[in-house]
């Protein structure tokens, strides 16, 4: 697993050098992935939490960010009680180091708070302070995974668009399917190149594949874009059982079908290369992009 992490780091460094732009500022080689999906309750938070753990087990330095700024709840899924959150950083009451939590799985976790919509209205001073604090973390990560709120509101889609890759989670239900397509459409409009589908709560792999193929067919026809299909996670009673016990699925039911499927997703995610072709390393880091969105 260490080998895989080393390979990933090398790959990222090579890609970072390939931009050919003379005044490009070298950036730390950090990959950013947002987990989004349109419809509420499709399993974004469960997936992002456990993907973070799976990637950390493969030797990556993972930062998990709760980007559901209005109803932050990743702390519950992680079984943590944060003393500080991003609101404290914004108010200058905590540094980012005091806010980030180390977890037993090796994932570092950045909790959010309810009522953080005001982030968009930060004055320049506070925005700069938050940006400076957040950017300090990027250099010590290989992978930043961001959970997002449901819906296709500006805050969620901005966050997803600022990441290099957006994983769009759906279930086989028609409503989820249709919201996943709406998300795909908005993110394509925002210029996102690397979008991938995950089907959660499927009755079988076949059902998951059929769901993904239908979304791919609609996207190809109407958006002239073919999102990648990463895989399916089955409907599995160990998922709500782990949430009830406030422990991550991969920690307490590592051999359950859903946990095994998430492990496979992590393998595929880290294997790359991206179907959208080589990713470009942005001059702006993830947090810098988010902070600049409303300017
Ligand atoms: N594969 C699965 N099998 C069974 N239950 C699942 C599965 N995935 C998620 N769930 C359940 O679905 C519910 C919603 O999951 P989760 O909170 O991760 O969704 P979400 O997309 O983050 O929701 P929100 O949009 O409200 O943030 C939880 O009760 C969770 O236990
Ligand atoms: Mg959620």
From TrEMBL:
Keywords: ATP-binding, Nucleotide-binding
PANTHER family: CELLULOSE BIOSYNTHESIS PROTEIN BCSQ-RELATED, SEPTUM SITE-DETERMINING PROTEIN MIND HOMOLOG, CHLOROPLASTIC-RELATED
Gene Ontology cellular-component annotations: cytoplasmic side of plasma membrane; cytosol
CDD domains attached to this UniProt entry: FlhG-like
Lineage of producing organism: Bacteria, Candidatus Eiseniibacteriota
Domain of life: Bacteria
GO molecular function, one term: ATP binding
Biological process annotations from GO: negative regulation of cell division
Protein name: MinD/ParA family protein
Pfam families the record matches: ParA
């Amino acid at each position: 697993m260490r080998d895989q992490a080393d390979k990933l780091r090398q790959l990222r460094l090579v890609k970072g050098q390939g931009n050919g732009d003379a005044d490009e500022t070298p950036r730390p080689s950090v990959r950013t992935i947002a987990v989004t999906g349109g419809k509420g309750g499709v399993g974004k938070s469960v997936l992002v939490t456990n993907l973070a753990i799976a990637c950390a087990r493969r030797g990556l330095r993972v930062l998990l960010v709760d980007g559901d700024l209005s109803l932050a709840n990743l702390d519950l899924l992680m079984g943590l009680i944060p003393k500080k959150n991003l609101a404290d950083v914004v108010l200058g009451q905590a540094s980012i180091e005091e806010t980030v939590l180390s977890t037993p799985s090796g994932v570092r976790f950045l909790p959010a708070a309810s009522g953080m919509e005001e982030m968009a209205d930060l004055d320049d001073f506070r925005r700069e302070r938050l940006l400076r604090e957040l950017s300090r973390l990027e250099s010590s990560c290989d992978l930043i995974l961001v959970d997002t709120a449901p819906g296709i509101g500006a805050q969620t889609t901005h966050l997803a668009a600022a990441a290099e890759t957006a994983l769009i989670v759906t279930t086989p239900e028609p409503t989820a399917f249709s919201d996943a397509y709406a998300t795909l459409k908005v993110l394509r409009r925002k210029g996102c190149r690397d979008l991938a589908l995950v089907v959660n709560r499927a009755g079988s792999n076949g059902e998951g594949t059929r769901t993904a193929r239908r979304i791919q067919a609609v996207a190809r026809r109407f958006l002239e874009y073919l999102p990648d299909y990463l895989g399916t996670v089955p409907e599995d009673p160990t998922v709500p059982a782990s949430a009830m016990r406030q422990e991550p699925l991969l920690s307490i039911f590592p051999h359950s079908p859903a946990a095994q499927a998430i492990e496979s997703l992590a393998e595929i995610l880290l294997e790359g290369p991206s179907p959208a072709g080589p990713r470009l390393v942005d001059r702006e880091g993830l947090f810098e992009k988010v902070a600049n969105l409303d300017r």
